[in-house]
Amino acid sequence: MRPIVILDAFVTDKQEEKTLSDFIDSIKTIGDDVLLMSNTTTSKKIQDKVNYFFYDKRNQLFKEEYSKYDYVNYWTMYNGFKVSNLFPHTQNHGLSVLINLFRSVRIAKELGYTHFYKMEYDAKLTEETKIKINELNNDCVLNNKKGVFLLIIMMIIHQCLYIIFSVKSIIF
Q: Which terminus of the chain is more solvent-facing, meaning fewer CB atoms within 10 Å of its CB: N or C?
C-alpha cells in the first residue's frame, strides 16, 4: 500500500496560509506524502512543504441556482447530543472541489500511489486522529477492503474524507 494525502486548499490571505502551513506540518508527521491541489497560487514556502503541488487557475464554479439547496447544515454529536448549525449558503464551489479531487486522484495514480485520503486543511489534528488514520490504512490492507468513506464533523476535526483508489478512469 502506498497512500498519499490530498489537500484541496483555496487560500486567499496570510492567516489561511498559516493555517495551511500548520496543517501540512501536522499531517506530515503521519509519514505519507502530500499532494496539494489549489485554485489559488501559493507561496514557495508552502510548495516546498508538500511533495506535489497542482494549480488550476480556472476555479470552475456551478453557475445555476439550486433553489432546493439554499441551506447548509453543519452538525456534530457531543455526548449523544446533536447540535446543528443551519445557515443560508450556496455551494457554487462544489464543482471545483470535485474536479480538483478527480484530477488529484488521477495524478496520484499516475505517480504510483495506491490509496489516498482527502482532508480539509483548516482542521486541527489530534494524536488520536493520526492514530486512527494509520489504523484505517492498516485495516484496508489487513481486511482487503476496497475502501473506507468517512465524513467526520466535530469541533476538532472539520472534515476527513478517506477513499481507496477504485476509479478506473475519469473523463473531463
A: C
The domain segmentation of the chain, as residue ranges, is 3-57+92-164
CA atoms of 74 and 10, how far apart (whole Å): 20
The rounded distance, in Å, linking the Cα atoms of 119 and 137 is: 15
Amino acid 161: pLDDT: 36
What is each CA distance from 79 to 76, 86, 91, 97, in whole angstroms?
A: 10, 20, 30, 32
Q: State the pTM of this model.
A: 0.71
What are 44-87's pLDDT values in tens digits? 999 999 999 998 887 666 566 656 656 666 666 666 776 666 65
Cα dist. 151→38, 148, 161 in Å? 21, 10, 6
Candidates 1.10.287, 3.40.50, 2.40.50, 3.30.390; correct CATH number of 3-57+92-164? 3.40.50
| Cell numbers linked to 58 | 480556472
Q: For residue 90, report the phi and psi dihedrals to the nearest 5 degrees.
A: -100, 150
